[in-house]
Amino acid sequence: MESNAVLLESKSSPINLLNEMHQLRLLGHLCDVTVSVEYQGVRAEFVAHKAVLAATSKFFKEVFLNEKGMDGPRTNVFLNEVQVADFASFLEFVYTAKVEVEEDRVQRMLEIAEKLKCLDLSETCFQLKKQMLESVLLELQNFSESQNAEEESSPQPSILLESKAAAVAEADQADCPLDPPDSPADRPSNRVSPEMPATKSKEKT
């Protein structure tokens, strides 16, 4: 009688494998490739494992699969126009699946990921840039909303000016005649208005 198949799966094995490979690289054990990086006169060499680089980078995979023969105990790969700090961060990422970089280096890490054809690093950089952009947009939106709230709570200058102008106009109409000062009606004259005697006569009667 056949028994049912069961799945034996370790959740920690991939992490343990990466950690062990990382420790081997840091100690220089079983490393079979040396990557020389040079940028603007600054040069550095990094030892690593072909299998790890080939599994995480299509660029290195093509290089290792197409090499004719071994140069010696280790294969040498030369990379130009790649900064030393960026390649060190790239190696840390492919060996640990994480790396901490400054915000202004995210774009450079994306460029090196595209240059070395590392899909995992490219996707990680894209996601991080998306989060950074969304964070900036959210801050701008909150700032804009706070500005609008302040403007709505404070009286509008135009409304204040209009109300003041209306008040001044009403005061002028109450204190001053409608005719302009230079009109003949407002000029001093020795003549008596024809209405004056009639008013006086009414008062006398």
From TrEMBL:
Keywords of this entry: DNA-binding, Metal-binding, Nucleus, Repeat, Transcription, Transcription regulation, Zinc, Zinc-finger
GO cellular component: nucleus
Keyword Cytoplasm listed: no
Species of the source: Dromas ardeola
Transcription is among the record's keywords: yes
Highest taxon in the source lineage: Eukaryota
Domain BTB: 31-103
Single Gene Ontology MF annotation: zinc ion binding
Gene behind the chain: Gzf1_0
Protein name: GZF1 protein
Pfam families membership: BTB (PF00651)
SUPFAM superfamilies in the record: POZ domain
